[in-house]
Design goal:
Radius of gyration of chain B: 21 Å
Pfam family, one (chain A): ResB
Largest sheet of chain A: 6 strands, antiparallel
CATH architecture of the largest domain in chain B: 3-Layer(aba) Sandwich
Subcellular location (chain A): Membrane
Shape of chain B: elongated
Oligomer: heterodimer
Shape of chain A: elongated
CATH superfamily of the largest domain in chain B: Glutaredoxin
CATH topology of the largest domain in chain B: Glutaredoxin
Number of domains of chain A: 5
Structural class of chain B: alpha/beta
Keywords (chain A): Cytochrome c-type biogenesis, Membrane, Transmembrane, Transmembrane helix
Strand order of the largest sheet of chain B: 5-4-3-6-7
Membrane topology (chain A): Multi-pass membrane protein
Order of helices and strands of chain B: HEEEHEHEHEEH
CATH class of the largest domain in chain B: Alpha Beta
Main location (chain A): membrane
Number of helices of chain B: 5
Largest interface: A-B, 48 and 45 residues
């Protein structure tokens, strides 16, 4: 273990540029510079010399700010690319992603899909990038804050001449009444709220040191924020589900362990009306046609009151009635239900009349519940209709057989057998919307379509997010760090007596103009000359 | 001191690495996470079959239960039904019960389907989707195997071949 012992007796970690205690320049090449690099106080921030094990190599990779900035730029670019086309979760479900991107955006769309950019934000490499930024943040911070803390804690009042000489603000004056001047300077420094330390007739005045911790507080906030993001993957912390509920239906709310149920009484879609709403809207309504004013589902929330086994009729207690509107969620426990989408006029019931084709005489009406059709409908007086087959979402398959695509009655079709006193053996008829097929020749009777009853369906987002608190705390700490670093400056002024002269040097982490003005004020009338800005001189 | 530094760095890197590994793992398994964990008690339910008889899962303790979730509109479900029926007849006497759970369809649709396929095992309808919810069923068909202790031992989505059905039933024989 090589350590660097300074001439002043202080032992510094290997790689230190400026002695933590007296500020003497320890590295040869730094001595040739007129002004020293004061970032991190010349401390041994990155011990490149410990590059022996794989652990050190990984550590040094992540401790580089260049690497960190590169990671951030790559992540920014990737995030931007992800917004060029919609992500997979936002494309319509009517077409699979493999077809959708090409048909919608051509070759570029296909490329987008093939490269996997349609699922960019949950891809492994994107997560690895984010995670690397997190690691870089932790290691960069640790590698800098610890040496910085050491350097600031160990700094001596009497700094080495080489250190003072190489400060950006530096000046030498000859003063006759030095003790008197010192008293004056100290008084003024105190009035500017500097903390003053004195040793052997030298002065170190310092203020706003805590501003130096701003970036690290800020990083702690960021890391907490990232942890919050990570917590979303922990089961039970984050729920985002879609629940479709038909009017009149009571559905179990997913992810609540079957505890909560939601009843949809009614879905309402209101539009702006030219006559009854504010006149100012008239033009806009004229130009755009329908303009939605309100999407609302009238609901009742229930809680299961007794343990029942799944499949049994649950015993429900009403919790509350709630009118669910966009951005006005129904909240219970840790869940929030949002009005998300809707489907208007889903078929629910169909009305038919059994009719004599020749006389057009209606022999009886029947209503079929499309969610629960009966086997047969007895119309009395020897008239009866039997349902031989039911296809809620009818289409012809590749063998021209009628089949159903789903259990939702989007396009209902029936095979009826109609029994009448005239035809006691029954006549078979295939009835779909706008088509009737009589497979066994001409019938005497038919099922006349009389009308439908429809219901609206509401889509409700079920959301739970226990990570919000963590994100808020992270964001808050982040802001504290920003404020701390932005609104305070770490200023130091050194005065040292050297052979009857007084050497003055000043340093600040930012806002040099402010420091110069402050020094001007402090030294005025003390006989001590203002230190010069050595960077200005260089330019001249 | 050098040793301490190496230990510190190793520990910090390990903690960070573990957090990253967990996040990646959780992200990629999130689509595969089931409500019903393997080796855990299968959620109990009671459903009525087409003959009006109640079937409660917990009543079948001591027997293996082959649970098949299906729909009349689902082609792969239709395809595997005869295989399940054949194997049901083989394993019925060996203590393997078969239950086919239809997802929220009408009695008419289900009974017409049964008429066409002549199925012997009990078919129940999960009218309000409670059982589907409890088992976290996504695409159909989905099959769960419950062992004689009432624990879930396997979950499978997609069509089954007849030999798979046999293998599955063999697996839960008491």
């Amino acid at each position: 273990m090589k350590q660097v012992k300074c001439e002043c007796g202080h032992v510094n970690p290997h790689g230190t540029v400026l002695c933590e205690s007296c500020g003497r320049v320890l590295v040869e090449e730094e001595k040739s510079k007129k002004v020293v690099d004061m970032r991190y106080e010349g401390s041994a921030r990155r011990s490149q010399t410990y590059n022996k094990t794989i652990i050190d190599k990984i550590w040094n990779f992540f401790s580089s700010v260049k690497v960190g900035v590169t990671l951030i730029i790559i992540t920014l670019a990737a995030s931007a690319i992800g917004t060029i086309f919609p992500q997979e979760m936002y494309i319509p479900t009517t077409e699979p992603a493999s077809i959708y991107y090409e048909s919608q955006y051509g070759f570029l769309g296909k490329l987008y899909y093939v490269l996997g950019l349609h699922n960019l934000y949950s891809s492994w490499w994107y997560l690895v990038l984010i995670a690397s930024i997190g690691i870089s943040l932790v290691i960069c911070s640790l590698d800098r804050v610890i040496p910085l803390y050491r350097a600031l804690k160990n700094q001596k009042v009497s700094r080495h001449e080489g250190f003072l000489k190489r400060q950006r603000l530096f000046g030498i004056s000859k003063v006759d009444e030095l003790d008197h001047s010192y008293e004056l300077v100290k008084e003024k420094l105190e009035s500017k709220r500097y903390k003053i330390r004195e040793e052997n007739g030298d002065i170190l005045a310092e203020k706003g040191r805590f501003s130096r911790w701003g970036p690290y507080i800020n990083h702690i906030g960021l890391i907490i924020f990232l942890i919050g993001g990570m917590m979303r993957f922990v089961p039970g912390m984050y729920v985002d589900e879609l629940l479709w509920v038909r009017e009149g239906e009571t559905a179990v709310i997913p992810e609540t362990n079957g505890e909560y149920y939601l009843e949809n009484h009614k879905f309402v879609l209101e539009v702006y009306d030219k006559d009854s709403d504010n006149e100012a809207f008239a033009n806009a309504i004229e130009n755009n046609g329908m303009v939605a004013k309100n999407f609302q589902t009238d609901t009742t929330l229930y809680k299961k009151s007794a343990e029942t086994v799944a499949g049994e009729e649950p015993i429900l207690d009403k919790v509350e009635d709630y009118e669910l509107r966009v951005n006005e969620p129904l909240k219970f426990e840790q869940f929030a239900l949002y009005q998300q989408s809707y489907k208007l006029d889903e078929l629910n019931q169909m009305h038919f009349a059994l009719t004599n084709k020749e006389t057009n005489e209606a022999l009886g009406d029947l209503t079929i519940d499309l969610y629960n059709p009966q086997d047969e409908y007895d119309l009395g007086e020897g008239y009866k209709v039997e349902v031989l087959s039911y296809f809620p979402d009818f289409e012809f398959d590749e063998n021209s057989e009628p089949v159903t695509k789903s259990r939702i009655p989007n396009n209902p079709a029936f095979v009826f057998k109609m029994f009448t006193p005239e035809k006691p053996d029954g006549e078979v008829s295939f009835v779909a919307i706008k088509q009737t097929i009589e497979p066994f020749g001409d019938n005497d009777f038919k099922m006349t379509f009389k009308g439908v009853e429809t219901k609206n369906v509401s889509a409700i987002t079920v959301r739970k997010d226990l990570t919000l608190g963590i994100l808020a705390v992270g964001g808050f700490i982040f802001m504290i760090g920003v404020i701390q670093g932005a609104y305070w400056n770490h200023r130091r002024i050194w005065l040292r007596r050297v052979d009857g002269e007084v050497w003055v040097a000043g340093h600040t982490n930012k806002n040099w103009h402010g420091l110069k003005r402050e020094i001007t004020g402090i030294l005025q009338g003390t006989g001590i000359e203002e230190p010069k800005d050595q960077l200005d001189e260089k330019e001249k | 001191m050098k040793k301490r530094r190496l230990v510190m760095r190793t520990v910090i890197l390990l903690i960070l690495g573990a957090a990253v590994a967990y996040t990646l793992y959780a992200n990629f398994s999130k689509d595969k996470v089931h409500k019903v964990e393997m080796g855990k008690e299968a959620p109990d339910f009671v459903l009525v079959d087409m003959e009006g008889e109640s079937h409660r899962l917990s009543d079948y303790k001591g027997q293996g239960v082959f649970l098949n979730f299906w729909g009349t509109w689902c082609k792969p479900c239709e395809k595997e039904m005869p295989y399940i029926n054949n194997q049901y007849k083989q394993f019925e006497d060996q203590g393997v019960q078969t239950l086919a759970i239809n997802i929220s369809e009408s009695n008419l649709a289900v009974s017409k389907f049964l008429d066409r396929h002549n199925l012997d095992f009990p078919v129940v309808i999960d009218k309000d989707g409670q059982v589907r919810n409890a088992y976290g069923i996504g695409p159909l068909p989905a099959t769960f195997l419950v062992d004689p202790e009432g624990k879930v031992v396997k979950y499978h989505t997609g069509t089954l071949t007849e030999s798979m059905v046999r293998e599955f039933m063999e697996q839960i024989k008491p």
